[in-house]
Amino acid sequence: MAEDPSYKTRKVITIGVVSELTGLSERQIRYYEERKLVFPERSAKGNRKYSFADVELLIDIANKREEGVQTFEIRQDMLRAEKRKEKKKKRELLRGEINARFGIQKER
After folding, report:
1. Edge-to-edge, what's the strand order for the sheet holding 48-50?
2. Which domains does the chain have, with CATH numbers?
3. Is the pTM value of this prediction over 0.90?
């Protein structure tokens, strides 16, 4: 059965549940939000909502913090990874445009 990509990214989990799942305090989770490491959505009443991907990210952040990595360094690593992902996406788009322009077909 194929995994639905939206299930991991849907922001439906409250901060209390995230705290239980990660072992982090609600204050730690809010701190990581302040440091721009995680980006919850807000409900109509202003409550934070997280996704399963956010939970995994918070666990990864907590593990790095236990190893002594500073939040600034974690943020810089996240930004570098984002840039790499963007560059890869641009290369793929350009490759597709070139292939389409010159009628190049992918071999299967």
Report:
1. 13-14, 48-50, 41-42
2. 7-102 (1.10.1660.10)
3. no
